[in-house]
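How it folds:
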Amino acid sequence: MMLDLASFGDDKFHAKAWVNAACKSRHPDDSLDKYLGDLEMKLQLMAENIAASLEEQSAQALLRVPRASRDVFRVRDDALSLRSTVSAVLHKLQQAEGTSAESVAALARVDAVKQRMEAAHETLQDAAGLAKLSASVEDVFASGNLPQAAETLAQMRRCLAVVGEVPEFANVKRQLEGLEDRLEGMVQPRLADALTQRKVDSTQGLRDILITVGRYKSLEQHYTRVRMRPLKRLWEDFEAAKVGIPLAKPAATDSTMGGDRRPATMSSSANGSTTSFAEWLPHYYDEVLLVLEQELKWCMVAFPEDYQLLVPRLLIETMNSISASFVTRIDTFTSEATAASRALNGAQVPGGEVSGEGNGRFSTLGLLIGLHSVSESFSKNVLHLLSAIDVAELARVLQAIYQPFEGYKQRYGELERIQLLGEISALDLRGAVSRGFGQRGVELSETVRRMEASIPEITIALEAAVERCISFTGGVEAESLLRTLDEVILHYLASLLDILKSLRAICGVDRILDFLGSNDLSNLKKDAGLLDGAVKKEGGAVSSDVVPEEEEWSIVQGALQLLTVAEGLSSRSAVFEASLRATLSRLSTSLQPSRALTSSMSSLPFTVSENEESDDTFAGPMGLDITMLRLISSPEKAKRLAGLLEQQVKDPQFHALPHTSQRVAAFTEAVNELVYEVLMSKVRTKLSDLARETVWNEQEKENLFNLPSFSAYASEYVTSIGEYLLTLPQQLLPLAGSGSPEGVDEGSDDAQYFATEWMFKVAEGAIAAYIEQIRGIQALSERGAQQLSADIEYLSNVLSALSMSTPPVLHTFQVCVSAPRNKLAELAEQEGIDNATFRLVCKMRQVKLESA
């Protein structure tokens, strides 16, 4: 057997436990005595081996101790010797420092005197040279040697800088400035001619002259002015190419400028070929790119040290010079294009009442986005062409290219508001059916259908507005977008609420509210004739004919469809707001406005788009974004945008549209109120002036023949209400699929819940209205009490059929009016009796109660 020595080194080693464990591990066939003997022998042998090894190692350790002690003593002696040597060296250094300090100070004073003498000598030489150059400079100019004149002026400038503000040379400084201007004037026509004819050698020589006299700005100005002429001529060619703005027709997508969508352009008119600004602008950009490419190649040869500044500056100055004209042409194009679109739509639609701003492609903002996309393609091509240029200079180029659109971007909220309001005004939310008897349900259904259909249209328009904001402003105007969306949605909801108010008249519920409680029942029925179908017969009698049942239920069906409108509006507004928050989250990652606040033109942030090449050569320039440049140049806007995006990330209660949810809830509440009023209209009509009916005070007729007395039957008004309540679930359930919040199928649990919810709500409202009318009864005769008892009993049976319990107040009325008058007082202590109702019935039946 193998022995594990590790267990003997354990602090928790126990001998008995180890022996027991060893015995358990033996083979069952082995004798225990033999096994223990073998185990004892192995332990003894192992102990002897360990003792022998320990003795050997100890002997070796004892032999090494004297040797280690000698080594320690030798190292100590070496350290003491080194210390004494270092001390001697330090002492010598201190002595040398003391004796040489005075010598070094004297040498420093001598060196300073020498430097001053040399400076004075050089100054005298420069002064003498300056006087000589000042006297001979006119001869140099007279010789016509411009390079020599430039060198002479440069030397005079250096001498004058050395001499400083010496009064004797003040006139030389003024003379030098005049001579430099004179030399620049002599260089200008030659430089212009060399630049025009692209003479490389002449251009380089004239460039060196201007650089020598420190007039690099003059070189830049002359180059820009001369080379900008062909680019400005290209811009002015539009006036010759433009014939007019023809009728609107969408143009095909053009992919010549990097694959971006071109704006909707104009086609040919009946008078001949025409060219709109949108059609012409891509061709202008193509020509500019061609000229710019040729200019870059030539400048790399003529100005190898300056082309990185001259070529971008040429494009910047060109774009700045045409910026005002660019804006004017945009205004003209957008106004004429929208007018043409409006005229075309007006010719196609009877009456011509179609807002041009409602057409997204031909609205001002839509056309601007199209032109902006063309400029975006141009800017990408420019970045590819000038990829080797400094990033800060390229940023200025981008700002110049997009400068004409800056004013429109700042007015983005106003432009978006105009377009969205135009799209809302283009919606026809009114039913087209003429109102009349038998047509109100059709008109109501048509109006509700149009309201429901408008919700997805408005949602699509709002989603398109978000896309336009990102496409046109890169999301920088997100704050203006949210304000505009909130305002536009409130305008749309106000339109829906106005229509909802007008539907009250169509449904007839406003008449009930106005005349309910009238003292004259005939006037009530006359004023509410469209509701209950009352028509005067000959002789002035009022008919009790009601509106046909089909008309009643068509109004109910139309009103229930309003619930779909409310739920659709609520769910879509919630989904749209969640989508807005997701968009803002993406903007907080992509824009990083807080980073833009700490950036400058010298350290521009840039990113590489997923669609761009990842080559390091183009990573910087191609990552430039006009959106980030706008944020950098407008710290206040960046600060507000950063606060908005940070709030929506950190605040779980943040609402992108703070007023919309409140107004949607108000609209939903108004819809529920209208639906409830429609469902309750028949009940309230039947109960109108119920308390003033004469039946409650009728007396018993004399019974001459002693005929038996029969119980009273339920009155017509209560049977009508009961039949209506019993019919209501069957009418609601088929409508539950379209009228329930989820639009579920008929027969599902949600549909059943919808029908039950509204049935209970109407039944509870009917009972409350009925009880209110009963409370108004002034006096009850015995016959009137019997009739009221029969009516209440019938209504209680209806409630039971609807799985509803009878309210305690109504139960108290039934018990109290069904009891004989002489036993009424005995009911006071009966269980389930409402005390206030009991006292009211006693007052109606003129039963005096004993005072407590």
About this structure: The chain has 28 helices and no strands. The radius of gyration is 51 Å.
